[in-house]
Amino acid sequence: MTRVRSIVRGVGSYLPQNVVTNAELAKTVDTSDEWIQQRVGIKERHIAAEGEFTSDLAVAAAKAALDNAGLTPEDIDLIIVATTTPDYTFPAAATLVQMKLGMHHGFAFDIQAVCSGFVYAVTTADSYIKNGLAKRALVIGAETFTRLLDWTDRTTCVLFGDGAGAMILERAELAEGEPERGIIASALRSDGHHWDKLYVDGGPSSTGTAGHVHMQGPEVFRHAVGKITDVVYATLEQSGHTVADLDWFVPHQANKRIIDGAGAKLGLPPEKVVTTVDIHANTSAASVPLALSVAVADGRIKAGDLVMLEAMGGGFTWGASLIRW
Q: Which residue, of 174, 202, 217, is where some domain finishes?
């Protein structure tokens, strides 16, 4: 008896050229490198250039993932873009990526779950593949999140950056007795009662403007570690694995203290936790695939490794996905 699995064929990423350090931010807002690093562990972030849109970042990451997989756009029949910052209210950024890749086939759509978006998108693509609606999916997390910031608000403007990461998933049928590969289990959660703890004060239906990010930092921190560990344990329980089986934990890169706290609560040694928040800042839906791409490129994540992806974002939304690389 065969098992249908969504296996990872390739990953890729893209970061805008403009790098802004904490010291540079301190010239325009009341903050300091020491203050930022002590509270969130961020040293620098990338900021998209004028005229550089979310779909541009997504396309660059997609091309890198295709190259990594040895595939072309013709091999893809599903594109999902996780983003909070699409180029336009509509059409979906995914359809613009489809166009810019020269594709006229397949189908494409966006997912909006803020920082959890990539994990939501991976889980959604896995469902489409397992149900026979797609053979190969290009899953992208892409953000120009800095365009939602109030650059006079030091509690939020120091936290975020821009970037994109991509993963290609492919349908595979594993024969009985063949080693496990691909996405093994996932868990998704949300609770809209916490919407005002992390939100943007604008939108087409409410103000007709894009708005700015607002966050109750201590409240988000208070919920984060518990929700992260809850969904990780739920995913492990589905799969029959334990924390001890994990080779790598790739969490959402929002705050070094949250990452460290979740790792400690799970009992994971720090050397198994992939951390890139120091050089990328919080890139929302792009943070998990960006971290993943770094760990694959430097050789840490390799074939056969058991990898746990996790994210939590505004909504609140949170989720995890367990992958055998």
A: 174
